[in-house]
Amino acid sequence: MNGDQFRGASRHLKGRAQTVVGGLTGDPARQVRGAVNQVAGGAQYAYGRARDRAQDLVDDGRHLAHEVRDHAGHWIEEGRDRADHLIDEGRALTRHARKRGSTYGRRAVRYADDNRASALLGLAAVAFAVGWFARPRR
User: Fold this and answer.
1) What is the residue-averaged pLDDT of the chain?
2) Is this structure's pTM higher than 0.85?
3) CB 8 within 8 A of CB 41
């Protein structure tokens, strides 16, 4: 309960008392002042409740914003971890491919050295095929 609610409730009670006293004494002015104080007290109390509710909504919004920030930070951290993992996997695959490429390249050079005639014949066949497909058509 905030100050407006407290003051509104007390003003409302004061107005009720004035209305009762005015009715008992036969003083219509006091009855009217009591009714005015009752209405004003009720309005002030309603304003205090609305203000209290608005503060609760602000607090809830602030709480939600903090939760969203915390979750977003968690998701960002999780994304970074996944990205780091993918980068590490990519590096490992690259090292493996480079190693396999080097191995196959060495084997090809060794085969060409061991079989020079076959390698030259194969190279000539590839050159002929490229020339044949690259020639202009008439």
Assistant:
1) 91
2) no
3) yes
